[in-house]
Design brief:
Length: 76
């Protein structure tokens, strides 16, 4: 789900889609499912500014947290 969110975010950002596009609607569904988990992380670690672009690290941090929790469970 998280990887789909990332891919759809890039597609919507760079494809300049219309708001009634099916791709945009799919991205909105991913956003409604993933944003409640990412928003607390975003409050603690805001996007990093690189020039005029904001780099959102919350997805990367969530991947790392999931990995830190899941890998020990599967190894044990």
């Amino acid at each position: 789900m998280l990887l789909g969110y990332v891919i759809m975010s890039f597609v919507v950002a760079y494809a300049h889609l219309e708001y009634d596009s099916p791709v945009y609607k799919v991205q909105k569904v991913f956003s409604k499912l993933v944003d409640p988990v990412l928003n607390p992380i975003r409050r603690v670690i805001p996007p990093v500014r690189i020039g005029n672009v904001g780099l959102d690290l919350s997805v990367l941090i969530l991947f790392l947290v999931i990995e830190a929790i899941v890998i020990p469970i599967l190894a044990g």
